[in-house]
Amino acid sequence: MSKQIVKGLAVLLVVILVTCFTSSPVLAADLRSGDTVTVASGDVVDDDLYVAGGSIVIDGTINGDLWAVGRDVTINGTVNGSLVAVAQTVEVNGDVARAARLAGEMLLLSEAALTVT
After folding, report:
1. Do residues 42 and 27 touch, judged by C-beta distance below 8 A?
2. Pair 87, 69: CB distance under 8 Å
3. Which among 9, 21, 44, 48 would be 20 to 30 A from 28, CA to CA?
4. Entry pTM
5. What is the percent of the chain where pLDDT is above 90?
């Protein structure tokens, strides 16, 4: 079995296990999927956002946690919670208020994203 298939299956298994074993008293969430998923600049999501897609672009504001799984994940906006992103390419140019957990072949972090306040 090729390394990419094994790597992909391992990442998928980790995401499934984390999702299954993370308990929440209330499951209020926004679920989105598709080939291209975008949260436009000026859009505000007042909940946790779970996204699966080929290309994911977050230009708006997420007032909760963001979970993103796709081929390419780009965060240009603000995440006022934690970020979990698994993709071939993960690019963080915006602000993440809490923890950022990233997995991918290429991780691109801007200087602003590395600033701790």
Report:
1. no
2. yes
3. 9
4. 0.74
5. 68
